[in-house]
Design brief:
Elements lengths: L1 H31 L6 H19 L7 H18 L13 H22 L14 E4 L2 E4 H23 L1 H11 L1 H6 L4 H24 L10 H14 L4 H21 L7 H15 L3 H13 L1
Helix pairs in contact: 1-5, 1-6, 1-8, 1-9, 1-10, 2-4, 2-8, 3-8, 5-6, 5-8, 6-8, 9-10, 9-11, 10-11
Length: 299
């Protein structure tokens, strides 16, 4: 029972963080049909921004998210205005140009980080880094609880933006049918800039939270990008609820394998890649598509 409780607690905590990582990708893909390969570089940059605020100004890593989020939103809007908007429209599928361009942006960010911070491994150590508290009989690190709280607040914020603001309604309209949204008077270019900024802000916030749990270098973020890809493919590329479900499935798989098998934790990325492969082959529409097929069978 202790193992089950441990797996469930760690699954919920990990899933909240994974969902925060993946929603940035999902929002950008939904509005612009772009797979943002620079997402990993932006998460890495978020980790270094959090480190800079901590070392230079003594700002707590989780309070610094209040700075990192708006800052990365502006970075995303500027990146869209200067670079991404110049991409040719490719209809309903990501273009090769967008993949190459954003991969190039990732490399630029990575090399910029090497120049500024060198390749030395960095970490953020606070007064509570090594502390833990009991949750349902399981010892959980205090930083992990703060990450869970930060992730939940981020997801509540995104839900409010998408459902209760004009921006959110416009994002959903462009996601569902860009041409119809244009006919209804929605400025799709402006909404795309805001959506790219929102996705970039989520990448920065996710990177900031990850920096409180893991050591990092300019190569940081690659494995987390793979997890985010796995989640949005599993959950359905445009489904907010599906992304949350995908995050839960991946987190449960990783924690279950870690607790109930002898599989080394270093092979967790292999589990993510295997799940991504199985999803693309067996049910490419993700969990929403699988649920629709199950309903059709029992109808």
């Amino acid at each position: 029972m202790q193992d089950i409780a441990g797996v469930l607690v760690n699954t919920v905590i990990s899933a909240a963080l994974y969902a925060t990582m993946a929603y940035g990708l999902a929002v950008i893909y939904g509005v612009m049909r772009i797979i943002n390969l620079a997402h990993a570089g932006l998460m890495m940059l978020g980790a270094y921004a959090t480190l800079a605020l901590f070392t230079r100004f003594g700002l707590d890593p989780f309070l610094s998210l209040l700075v990192v989020g708006p800052l990365f939103f502006l970075i995303g809007v500027v990146l869209y205005r200067l670079v991404v908007r110049r991409l040719p429209r490719s209809g309903s599928t990501p273009s090769m140009e967008s993949l190459l361009l954003l991969f190039g942006v990732w490399l630029v960010l990575q090399n910029l980080a090497y120049v500024i911070w060198t390749g030395d491994t960095q970490s953020i150590l606070t007064s509570y880094t090594m502390k833990s508290v009991p949750v349902l009989g399981v010892r959980v690190g205090v930083p992990s609880l703060f990450v869970f709280a930060g992730s939940v607040l981020s997801l509540v914020f995104l839900n409010v933006v998408l459902k209760a603001t004009y921006l959110g309604k416009a994002i959903r309209a462009v996601t569902q049918n860009r041409d119809a949204a244009l006919l209804a008077g929605v400025d799709a270019d402006r909404i795309s800039a805001m959506a790219f900024g929102l996705g970039t802000a989520f990448a920065g916030v996710a990177g900031g939270m990850l920096s409180s749990l893991y050591a990092f270098t300019p190569d940081f973020g690659r494995s987390f990008l793979l997890k985010a890809f796995c989640i949005i493919v599993l959950g359905g590329m445009e489904s907010v609820t599906g992304v949350a479900a995908g995050a839960l499935v991946l987190a449960f798989l990783e924690n279950g394998l870690g607790s109930w098998t002898t599989l080394p934790t270093s092979l967790q990325d292999a589990a993510s890649f295997t799940l991504l492969f199985v999803t693309l082959v067996a049910f490419p529409q993700g969990l929403p598509g699988l649920a629709a097929r199950v309903r059709a069978v029992f109808k």
